[in-house]
Amino acid sequence: MPKPYYITTAIDYTNGAPHIGHAYEKVLADAMARFQRLAGNEAYFLTGVDQHGQKVQQTAEKAGVPPREYVREVTDKFLALWERLGVRADGWVETIDPRHTRIVQDLLQQLYDSGQLYKKTTSGFYSNRQEQYLSDKDRNEAGEFGPEWGEVVQLEEENWYFRLSDHVPWLRGFLEATPDFVFPPNRMTQLLNAVNGSEGMDLCISRPKSRLTWGIELPFDSDFVTYVWFDALTNYISFAGYRDASPETSGLPSFDRLWPCDAHVIGKDILIPAHGIYWPIMLHACGFTDDQMPKLVVHGWWNVRGEKMSKSLGNVVNPNDIADVIGTDGLRYFLLSEITTGQDSDMSDERVLFRYNKELADILGNLLNRTLNMARKYLGGVLRHTAFDSPAQVALREKVASLPGAAMEHMKTWQIHRVLADCLDTARQANEFIDHTSPFKLAKDPAQADQVASIMGHVMEALAHLSVLLSPAIPAAAAKIQTQLGWTPPAGFTLQDLQWGLLPDGHTLGEPQPLFPKVLLPPPV
Ligand code: MSP
Questions:
Q1: Residues in Cβ contact with 508 at an 8 Å cutoff, skipping those fewer than 6 apart
Q2: How many helices (H) and strands (E) does the chain have?
Q3: What whole-number distance in Å separates Cα of residue 276 and Cα of residue 481?
Q4: What's the gap between Cα 309 and its chain centre?
Q5: By alpha-carbon position, which residue is closest to atom 12 of ligand 1?
Q6: How far is ligand 1, taken at its centre, from the CA of residue 19, in Å?
Q7: Coil, helix or strand at residue 404
Q8: Pocket lining: 25 vs ligand 1, CB cutoff 6 Å
Q9: How far is CA 155 from the centre of its chain?
Q10: Nearest C-alpha neighbor of 306 from the set 348, 352, 355, 353
Q11: Which pLDDT value is given to residue 89?
């Protein structure tokens, strides 16, 4: 049996409420997992939250609550949002989980035992925001540490270091031999440049408890907790059943079946150094072979009205506010149609309204609603297969038949926006087919009854196909389309089953209901 398609996202910091960037990444990964299942593959989707670290400790202190209580509150906000948006994960990460702690400590102990860790005192600059030491390479052209580092303080302290530099030659060779380690390809070029500049750089993997207690203790030195990234990256294996001490009861998947990860879906800011350098080196240093290295899918960032989203600019978009206006599938559709996977995109209320009103409401919703109403009027809501055919019918069937193959092709590089564009084009074509064939005029002449039935049948059949192809992106709306068509795909239905003739002769259609009611007020972007 082939291994499941294993897909993860970054785990979100619990030092604030979820924003639109978090929502995009989770919706993208969710749609990718759903698409794999639709293609007939088994999929395992892991996501969750990153609960440790100095930022969380500081925010909890400011809020006057213990960190454990604070992260619970924020974690619940993330969970509620994923539930609302239909982000359906198979596994859920919370880094305070004791099983995760055990694996992180196991790896640290293994590195310690194999002589890959050493202790030294350094003095240097430290970015509180990024929770890392800075070097001169991190200074900008003016020779300063730019605003992206937040507050930078000078520290002198003793810490534990990981001999990362010992593995840099291996990493360079691995990357050169494995161009598909990172998608999109231009990110590989950036990564290779960064690797070439990281010679002689070891990684500080501890933080003294004198300034950070909210973390996982080093198993061999109780004065320290581990660096939050060492903790966080390990989630991809610790929640995937790695060294599972109680596989019968843990509820975790079988690591041997699942690993390596087929897609770590992450934003561009956490490729270098975390996922592109630290993570493969951590795995390699712990004995993972080149064949056991995961793959990275790096997405771009959402800007808001041309500016970077930031608390200081006050333009952070809350996904709940948008979903309140255009619904959860309206939001999912916007996030997946408006961005090319791998590139940046921009949000504004105009773009949100355009995608919702002009595409979902005017094209897809309207097609379903007008055709169902006509079918009730002219056919009593029951489809009738007839021998009538014409080039317009043939063209619609050909367009529909091309969709599954095209979707498979687009999804090889996770271009779900192209799948959506093809679906919307098909709905547009079906609307034009109705306009040109004018069943509302033909219905007045009983001699044209076969042609009317054929037109209705073609559009309903096309909508059944569209409901399946759209289901990874907008699952709730797809299910509503199916209810209105009076048709649900049988269990185990895959893209290969998407053949003309889903709705049989004599099929009874469901009730028309507005699918995407028009929105007049702009959403708060
Ligand atoms: N906790 C770390 C990740 C650890 S993974 C082992 C982290 N958390 S985060 O909350 O800051 O970011 C989570 C994800 O959201 C990252 O992949 C990040 O790139 C993504 N995004 C944050 N802002 C974003 C946008 N404005 N647009 C799109 N994605 C963005 O980093």
A1: 381, 382, 383, 486
A2: 18, 17
A3: 42
A4: 19
A5: 12
A6: 10
A7: helix
A8: yes
A9: 37
A10: 348
A11: 98
The pair of structure tokens assigned to 435 is: 């306009």
Longest dimension (CA), the chain: 92
81, amino acid identity: L
21 close to ligand 1 (CB < 6 Angstrom): yes
Beta carbon of 265 within 6 Å of any ligand 1 atom: no
Q: Is 24 in the pocket of ligand 1 (CB under 6 A)?
A: yes
Over the stretch 399-425, which tens digit does the pLDDT of each residue have? 999 999 999 999 999 999 999 999 999
Residue of minimum CA distance from atom 5 in ligand 1: 10
* CB-based contact 390:396 (threshold 8 Å): no
CA distances from 212 to 6, 52, 60, 124, 489 (A): 33, 10, 13, 17, 53
Q: Judge whether 8 and 28 are in contact, CB under 8 Å.
A: no
Which alpha helices (H) appear in 276-390, and where do they start and end?
279-285, 319-337, 349-353, 366-379
Kindly state if the Cβ of 359 falls inside 6 Å of ligand 1.
Answer: no
Q: Is 13 touching ligand 1 by the criterion CB < 6 Å?
A: yes
Cα(46)–Cα(264) distance, rounded to whole angstroms? 10
Q: Give pLDDT, residue 294.
A: 98
* CA nearest to 367, candidates 395, 488, 375, 331: 375
CA distance 199 to 168: 7
Mutate which of 7, 8, 11, 22 for ligand 1 pocket (most atoms within 8 A of beta carbon)? 22
User: Which residue's C-alpha comes closest to atom 6 of ligand 1?
Assistant: 233
pLDDT tens-digit map of 176-196: 999 999 999 999 999 999 999
Q: How far is the CA of 266 from the centre of ligand 1 (A)?
A: 7
For residues 228-233, give the mean pLDDT. 98
For the chain, domains (ranges, CATH) are 355-497 (1.10.730.10)
- Position 523 scores a pLDDT of 80
Are 42 and 17 within 8 A, CB to CB? no
Dist CA 229 CA 281 (whole Å): 13
Closest atom of ligand 1 relative to the 50 alpha carbon:
1
Q: Tens digit of pLDDT for each residue in 49-107?
A: 999 999 999 999 999 999 999 999 999 999 999 999 999 999 999 999 999 999 999 99
DSSP helix/strand/coil, 221:
strand
Q: Say if CB 96 and CB 71 are below 8 A apart.
A: yes
Calculate how far, in angstroms, residue 119's C-alpha sits from the geometric centre of ligand 1. Answer: 31
Residue whose structure tokens are 């997405």? 299
Any atom of ligand 1 within 6 Å of the Cβ of 18: no
Q: What is the mean pLDDT of the chain?
A: 96
Q: Which of 7, 12, 317 maximizes ligand 1 atoms within 8 Å of its Cβ, making it the mutation to test the pocket? A: 12
* Residue 233 in contact with ligand 1 by CB distance below 6 A: yes
Ligand 1 within 6 A of 296 CB? no
Contact 36, 4 (CB under 8 A): no
Check if 309 has its Cβ closer than 6 Å to any atom of ligand 1. yes
